[in-house]
Automatic annotation (TrEMBL):
<dbReference type="GO" id="GO:0005829">
    <property type="term" value="C:cytosol"/>
</dbReference>
<dbReference type="Pfam" id="PF03641">
    <property type="entry name" value="Lysine_decarbox"/>
</dbReference>
<protein>
    <recommendedName>
        <fullName>AMP nucleosidase</fullName>
        <ecNumber>3.2.2.4</ecNumber>
    </recommendedName>
</protein>
<dbReference type="InterPro" id="IPR052341">
    <property type="entry name" value="LOG_family_nucleotidases"/>
</dbReference>
<dbReference type="InterPro" id="IPR031100">
    <property type="entry name" value="LOG_fam"/>
</dbReference>
<dbReference type="GO" id="GO:0008714">
    <property type="term" value="F:AMP nucleosidase activity"/>
</dbReference>
<dbReference type="GO" id="GO:0009691">
    <property type="term" value="P:cytokinin biosynthetic process"/>
</dbReference>
<dbReference type="InterPro" id="IPR005269">
    <property type="entry name" value="LOG"/>
</dbReference>
Amino acid sequence: MQLRFNRTNGEIDTLIDSLIEKADGVHHPVLVREMVISALKAGQDTDYLADLKLLNNTMKEMRYTNRVFAPYRQKKKVTIFGSARTEPHEESYQKCVSFSRRLADKGYMIITGGGPGIMQAGNEGAGSENSFAVNIRLPFEQAPNRVMLANPRLITYKYFFNRKVAFVKEADALAVFPGGFGTLDEAMEVFTLIQTGKTSPKPLVLIDDSDGYWEQWFKFIKERMLGKGFISAEDFSIFTITRSEEEAVKVIEDFYRNYHSLRFVDGRLIIRLNMELSKANIEELENEFPELHHAGTKIVPTAPLPEEADEPDLLRLPRIALQFDHQHYGLLMAFIGRINTFESPPDSCKQ
C-alpha cells in the first residue's frame, strides 16, 4: 500500500501507535511516528542497498550525536577548525591552546574534529572535561588525539555531512585557524550557512598567524569576490579576522552581551535579549537599519508569543520583533552587533 504521513494508513497507523506506546518513554510521538513512516516509505521506494545503508547510518549517527550533546545543552560551546598537520611547537598550535583555555576558564566547552594538530590543541587547552571531539573515519591523519582518546564525548562519524551538522548545530561560535582544504571547506560552509540564514547567527572568528594567512585570503575576497559582485559588502559582517586570541575571545563574549537568540514565528523575526531596549534604542535601530525589515513595518518590543511555549526556559527574556526580509543576513549580523552596544536603559520599554 502507499503510505502517507496523514493518518490514512489504517492498520499500519494502529501498529505504529502501539509500537510507540510499548517502547515507553518516547518523546514527541507525533514526530517519531513520521520518522517511522519515513523509514517504511524509504523501504518501499528504494531497492538499492547502498542508498538504504546511507539513510540508516545517517539516522544512527545523528541520534547518537543528540544523545552525547543533550546533557550539555545549556553550556555555550565553541567549534574550532584548523589544520591536522600543525605541530605542537608552531605558533598557531600554541595560540589555539591559549584561546581554548581562556574560553574554558569563562565556562565554554570546545568542539573539535578530534584529530591531531589544531584539533588536539583545542582539546588540550580546554581540557578533556570541557571538550567534545567529532571525529571522522579516514585512512590517514584522523585517529583520535591523546586528549580525547577515551572520552565519552568522542563521536566518530562515517559521513562528513553528519559531522558538519554537529560542528555547526551545537556551536554558539566558531573559530578557524589556518589550514588546508578541509579547514577551508568547513569555514566556507559556515560562511554560506550564515549568509543564507540556514543556521542561526553566531560569531565566526578567523584567527591569523604572523604570516597573514587570513589577511591574504581577505585580500582575495575583497578583490575577486566583492570586486566581481559575487558577494555584498555587508557579508563582511559575518566574520572577524584577528591575530590575538584575547580579541577572539572578546568577539565571542561581546556577541552575547545583550543578544541571546532568535526565532521565526509566522514570518516575524523574534530576537530574544538579555536586557530590554529603550524606545530610543529601538528608534536608533530603525534609523540605522531600514533595509532590514519590510517597508511600512517597524521594530517593536513584544511579549513571548504562544508559539514559543516549547522553550519555557526562554520565556523570561525581553524581545523585539520585526518583519525581516530574509535577504540581508550579513546586515542582520551587524544589527546584532549594534544591539550589543546599548547599555541598560533607565527607561526600558515595558510590555
